[in-house]
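Reviewer 2 asked us to include a model.

Predict the structure of this chain.
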Amino acid sequence: MVIKMFPIALKVFYYLPVLITTVFWPSIPYAGELEEKLRESAKTGNISEVRSLLIQGADVNAKITNLLRLPNETPSSVRSIEGVTVLMIASQQGHLDIVQTLLTNGADVNAKQSEGATALMMASQQGHVNIVRALLKNGADVNAKRNDGATVLMWASEYGYPPGIKILLKNGADASAKRNDGTTALDIAKNKGNVKIIKMLQKATRKREIKNK
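Predicted model (structure tokens):
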């Protein structure tokens, strides 16, 4: 009897890992699954799902790869960016409630992606004023620079959102800062032809020059 049962026991032992994987694995999140779901929820604005994923243990500061297309760029200009955080995605998409939830749960407000951009830059380039305020209130560096030397103010000036620029200047943004190639926010505004922003930056530049004398 023992001899007859041995082949059966051997088969059970052999297939046990497969059975466990098949039956139980779908309920066990793989490494990074929660973070991928968090990214998608932040992008679509699903606040309840974001809260649920954070409770489940999703890493609020996980860095992931994300597709990026800046305003006014064509679909063919979409590129893959490394080191993007969920806070950056929520800030770019304009989901204030999610931004606040992420910050409350320890999101790094000054984290940078592979090109050096921050959540504040992304909110500023889209003109999400309330998110700009929220990020600054939580310690966002108003003069953070990207790898090419571009500042938050330059991003806002390029995409033309005066209300956001006003907030940045009020919070100490340096209008005289230069990109690695020597370009300033004022140069960018002039190139875009946005008269209102040009006047704001000229005034801010004069104030800083007087202050530094």
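DSSP finds eleven helices and two strands in the chain. The chain has two domains: 27-141, 146-213. We have added this to the supplementary material.
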